[in-house]
Structure formats: C-alpha cells, structure tokens
Amino acid sequence: MKKKFFRPFFAILFLTALCGCSSSSFLAVSSAGNMTGGIYQVTDGVPVQKLALPTLNYLIKVQGSSFAYGTVSRMPGKSRQRIGGVAFIELRPDMMILRKLVSTEGQTPCHLAISPDKKFLYTANYSNGDISEFKLENGVPVAPPRHLPHSGHGVTRRQKSPHPHFVGFHPVSKQLFVCDLGTDEIWIYDRTADGVTLPCTQKLTLPPGSGPRHLAFAPDGKTIFVANELSSTVTSFSFKDGKWQLIKTASTRQGHTVTPNYPGAIKITSCGKFFFVTNRGDDNIAFFAALPGGDFKLLKTVDSQGKYPSDILLTDDETTLLTINLKSGTATRFKLDLAAADLISDTAAINVPRGTGLCDAE
Questions:
Q1: Scanning 23, 78, 148, 212, which has the fewest C-beta atoms within 10 Å of its C-beta?
Q2: What b/e sequence results for 216-246 when a residue is b if at least 16 CB atoms lie within 10 Å of its CB, and e otherwise?
Q3: How far apart are CA 224 and CA 217, in angstroms?
Q4: Is a pLDDT exceeding 90 seen at residue 63?
C-alpha cells in the first residue's frame, strides 16, 4: 500500500488557544466521527475543543517532550477500507497542532505505545490482526511501518481471527506485551536496537473466551492484571521461577446480573495495592485490592455516572480518578481515598461527545 499523509486534511483542523494547564485539567478524546471529534481540554469542569480530528480514539503524551500521539481509526478518504493512522501532535503553550497523519497500513488501530528508548512507536491494529512498528525520527513517525502479524483464533464469534487491542512495555524487562482479544493470548516480544524481534518470545494463554483487552503492570513488574472484555473477568499472572504463571481469574461484577457487560480500561495505582476496571454495560468502576503473589479481591463497584465507561485516568497525587463514558458523551470526576478504599463522585457530568480516552494535560 502506498504511504499517504493526506495533507489536505490539515485544512480542516480546529485550533484554538490553550488555557494554562493546572492540576484540575485533563485531556479527553472524542471519536464523534465529525468535526466535534478530536481533543478536548477540560479545566475546572469546562471542556473546550482544542483539535478537531474526527476519528481519533486514543491519545498518549511523551514524557519530557512537547509531543503527543493518537490512533485514528479511519484515515480521511479511507472509511470503507477502515485503514487507520497515527496522528503526531505538537503541544505548544498556546495551541495544539497536528504535524503529521501517517497511515498504519492496518485496519482500526485502537491503542499505541512508545518504546522505552523513544525510537519506535507501535499500534495495535484490531481489525486486521497485526501490529504496526514505526521508526521515529526526531519524534516523527516514518512511513511505511513494519508489520508484526498475529495468527490464531478463539472460541467465540468475535474470535474468528486475531484482534490485538493493547500494546505496552514491561517496566523492567522492557519487552513489548500485546493483548490479543481474538486469540485469548498475551504476546510478548523481545527488543533490539532495530525494533522488536520475530517471532514473539512467548505467549501467555488465558481461559477460552476471555477476550483480553487491556492489561496493567504492577510497579515491580512481577505481576500483570488483564481486563477480559468477553468474559467480564480479570486474570492475573505472576513471574515466578523465571516464567510467567497464571494465578487467578475472577469476575469484575458484583451480584447476579444478565446485562451484557464488556470490561474496558484497567489502571493500577503507583503503590501497586489497588487497580480499577471499567464495566461497560453494568456502567460502573470495579475497585480491586491487589494482594501478594498475584492474588486480588473485588472490593466494590461504583456507578460511573454515565453510560459505557471507556477509559480511566488517575491524577498524579492519586486523590482523583476520572472516567469517560462513550454512550452518554460525558466524563466524571471521583474523589479517591486509597486509605479508606473509597471512591465518590464529586462533580456534575462533563460533556465530551462519544468519549473514548483520557490523558494528562501537563
């Protein structure tokens, strides 16, 4: 496929001055599919659109730089093929600028990560079941990407082929971990100076029909917790005796309910003692205690104050948790008291159309 940067698309950008970021500010991603989609900055509960990007669905910032990267589920003019892209965004004190939009040459990218040396960027391409690896030059993705193909299938109707949904780097080994919802596996890749190595180093197998969507690494890297979209469960693995071992799988739900439910985001606290999972369908946040050895316990579920909570963001001081709700088009702020293991909604809903992601503003 020929690489395309779609320069005419830059003409439709909506740019406006940024307010000074404060501890009460965060960035919210809207995948509205029209000119209301893109990036919103929310300050003191007030959302202001800063960049129009109709099919943006996920956003990360690069620590120590003025850059951000986002996944675009469909490139302009490529809606029928579902070919997605990576947005390279410059964050200035007074504005946001889309510097480049590069095709992943893969369908429906939904997550991305920067390598620890900041020389490569990876996207999980859900629909065609592979990973795109971009080299970065001065922070800019260089096309065309290299592709890391997945293979296999699961046992449900949504698992007829691979569906990578998360890419992230282990905090200690620096290996690339990939959640594949379609194969019920976590794919682990080693790294070299030239990118990740093929074939993948190891695969962690989850119970059939789990549908692993996202995972969270414990701070010491010895445990991972995986949010399973298709079975409404969390699975933990611990690194023991030189290998990863499955420890436990348990529900994200409290009580008996027949409502269809699909866990989405998972985030862990910096101390590693608690983690949170969004339940899309039950429309709540599952609050877990992480116990020694990879064990964990569901403490409570808390109403998300919206429909279909898609992402979670913890503030740096971990006194506030934010969620964004896709179907109600809202974001919600919660007071978080880790000492008391308590989570309480503390603001009215903040309007963000078809919200899918959250990101720090600073």
A1: 23
A2: bbbeeebbbbbbbbbbbbbbbbbbeeeebee
A3: 5
A4: no
